[in-house]
Design a protein that fits this description.
mainly alpha; elongated
Amino acid sequence: MSKIFRSRWAALLWAGGILWTAYDVAEAAAPPKPAATAAKPAAQPTDTNAAGINKDDLAVLSALVNGN
């Protein structure tokens, strides 16, 4: 191991490998993020005016997209 530190570049490369390994190990040990709770009811979708979207709105949008 003493030969590794005879070269400045080899020492930097060795130290970089140690830091990279420490980062990978610390990241793998991080606790998982909590999942979104399914108990909340889904929010009603709204348009840009905060008005609720109804079936007539969806029919108009479908006609525009499909070119009918």
